[in-house]
Amino acid sequence: MNLQWFPGHMAKTRKMMAESLKITDIAAELIDARLPLSSRNPEIDKILENKPRILVLNKVDMADEAATKKWAKYFEGKGLNVISVNSVTGKGLEKIGEALDRALADKRAKDSARGITRSVKMMVCGIPNVGKSSFINKIAGRAGAKTGNRPGVTTNKQWIRLKDGIELLDMPGVLWPKFDSEDVALRLAFTGAIKDEIMDVEELACKLLAFLGEKYAAAVEERYKLDSVSGRQGYEILEDICRKRGFLLGKGEYDYFRGANIVLNEFRDCKIGKITLEFPEE
Ligand SMILES: Nc1nc2c(ncn2[C@@H]2O[C@H](COP(=O)(O)OP(=O)(O)OP(=O)(O)O)[C@@H](O)[C@H]2O)c(=O)[nH]1
Ligand SMILES: [Mg+2]
């Protein structure tokens, strides 16, 4: 797949991040619990340098619980300050105070030695659609930042002030110019981090079904009332789904496009199940 996922506005966001970092105390790096490595910007260490950081595993309600626990341990093992949250319900967000305390201990000690009290400025960053604006709104307790179930909703930076001297900076989502592998690109596309308009949705749905058939066969069989999907090709599973749902164009011809869109939407709405796309032991 030859994709144009790094348009000019992403390069602009990268610049905006670098500039905003100068005036922020801490960064919250949001990653998607379903694909923690693929949703992590490989350039992030270079971008954030030694800025204090909290790593937020978001959308935990959509991921395999056991896998999320392993991922949290994996990142903690790398010395990162991790919290696992659902930014829609706020579950897990109660841990943010402690995470801030851990990350800002040095800055606060320095400030208090100099007798200053300052507000804390936190930049929230991550790939498109990972839940940055939702995370900010949930912490703020109001819908100050616009959210939406597609990538590219936030188009500019926006500060949201909280009562207790904390300011949160919302940013547009950003990807990076070159993905490590096709698997990374596919996982990002499955979850809706890359605009569908630039994807071949039928190919995407077939690749997703092939993965699900291998790792989550029971969930697919249950959702689409199919007999056995394991070991089958993605397009065969898509055909079965079209047949079951009656997605036909004419005599014996399947409406693959409709089937593919349904599969992708149902996956993104978590209707197939809580699914993790990559595992730390791999
Ligand atoms: N189930 C679930 N959905 C979430 C969670 N966090 C965000 N969402 C949903 O994910 C979608 C994207 O959320 P946004 O907050 O707009 O994401 P964003 O990172 O700000 O996206 P851009 O501004 O486009 O980069 C919305 O439909 C949210 O409701 C979560 O923890 N769990
Ligand atoms: Mg946003």
What does this structure look like?
The structure is a single chain. With 282 residues, the chain is α/β, with parallel strands linked by helices. It folds into 2 domains: 8-170, 3-Layer(aba) Sandwich (Rossmann fold); 200-268, Conserved Hypothetical Protein Ylqf, Chain: A, domain 2. It contains 10 helices and 8 strands. It has helices spanning 8-21, 44-48, 65-77, 96-113, 132-140, 182-191, 201-215, 217-224, 234-245, 256-268, and strands at 26-32, 53-58, 82-84, 120-126, 158-161, 166-170, 248-250, 253-254. Strands 3-2-1-4-6-5 form a 6-stranded mixed beta sheet, sandwiched between helices. The chain is elongated and about 80 Å long. Guanosine-5'-triphosphate binds at residues 58-59, 61-62, 86-88, 126, 128-134, 147-149, 151-154, 172-173.
Total helical elements: 10
Distance separating the two termini: 24 Å
Low-pLDDT windows of residues: none
Oligomer: single chain
Total domains, how many? 2
- Assign a percent range to the helix content: 40-55%
Mind telling me the C-alpha Rg? 20 Å
Q: Within the CATH hierarchy, at the fold level, what is the topology of the largest domain?
A: Rossmann fold
Would you tell me the overall average pLDDT?
A: 94
Q: What's the number of extended β-strand segments?
A: 8
Strand content: 5-15%
Which molecules are bound besides the chains? guanosine-5'-triphosphate, magnesium ion
Characteristics of this structure?
Rossmann fold; binds magnesium ion; alpha/beta; 2 domains; 8 strands; Conserved Hypothetical Protein Ylqf, Chain: A, domain 2; two-stranded antiparallel sheet; binds guanosine-5'-triphosphate; 282 residues
